[in-house]
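In this section we walk through a basic example: taking a raw amino acid sequence and producing a predicted 3D structure, encoded as discrete structure tokens. The instruction is simple. Fold the sequence below.
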Amino acid sequence: MAIPPIFQRLGLLLASTTLALSAQAAELQKIRLGINDSPQNAALERAAEVARERGVAVEIVAFSDWNTPNLALAHGDIDVNYFQHQPFLENANAQNGYGLVPIAYGVENKVGLYSKRVKSFAEVPDGATVAVADDPVNQGRGLHLYARAGLIQLRPDAGPKASLQDIVANPKQLKFIELPGPQLARVLDDVTLAQSYPSHILAAGTTDPNSALLFSDDEASGHLYALRFVTKPEKADDPAIRTFIQVFQNDPRVREAIAQAYGNPQLYSLAWLNRQEAAR
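The resulting token sequence is shown next.
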């Protein structure tokens, strides 16, 4: 039985449409992005949506700890990650021989000293239990905050990786407990003070992220603690990765998502605006 001309034309149209869609899908460059739990995730998802409009399909892979994203990147399970600052990356490379490289700046999170028990450092009682991060880099950042608060003194040469062994004066005999960074926001009911990122406080919902007794001075550090997009050396100029970073840094819809996530511009800064390493 002969097929009527109208159905022949319809079949050709459907076939052409299917081929066009298949070709469009095949043309998409694909990358896998490793992230950690953060208020920035909504902005990263928005950036992925915009990047798709520019021919890049981004699969976001979420990790629950601070070690696996670099391990996954080193093993080739993901193409780029976004969760760490420069000192953390340097420490991970030194300890594990990864050879990973930072290729662009992202958002810089403030870090603060939080309390649900006292309103000022003068109220901190003798022998109080306080919390710091257990990894070498973030512990150093926290200890420098405790020193700025006047609660301890560190060795004059204590750098970004200052440890508890670098404390040379502890007049209140504070008892330090060390915890993984993501857990610090959840111990405020059990300690007098805790170092934490406002982003983690916001995610945990334990207190007002704006209520830290002291925040870090990130301008003074030269944005050393800004989050970085990190990849393998051979992928540093990957066009798909670069397109995604350009979208994240420049698209107004992404900027809006970042602002909505933090709710207060004092809690973060867009480090790439004043740096040379903005996406090329």
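Looking at the output, two observations stand out. Residues 12-23, 276-280 have pLDDT under 50 and may be disordered. The helical segments are 5-27, 41-53, 68-74, 86-96, 136-148, 198-204, 239-250, 252-262. In the next section we compare this with other chains.
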